[in-house]
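Example 3.2
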Amino acid sequence: MSATPDPSPIQDTLQPEEPVADGAPPIEFLTQDEDAVPVDMGPLDETLIKIGQLAVRTISELKIEDIKVVDVRGRTSYCDLLVLCTASSERQLRAAA
């Protein structure tokens, strides 16, 4: 029986139901796997939240679906947030990239 890890720190900063600035859709955050080692990097700073909101707003304008933001601070050396999404075609995917 494994203990459920705490939710990602990003969830404490901006909940998915909470509206975001400039009419962008809400950001949906993924939680950690139950097998993952919890890493508490503390709350996100305002700049990082705005960058995540900008990415979601820009991608959503391209009719991309299932946009999710993952807090990967402390898990990767190349980024702090990872944006995942679903595109209906390769052309749409390239436009979002």
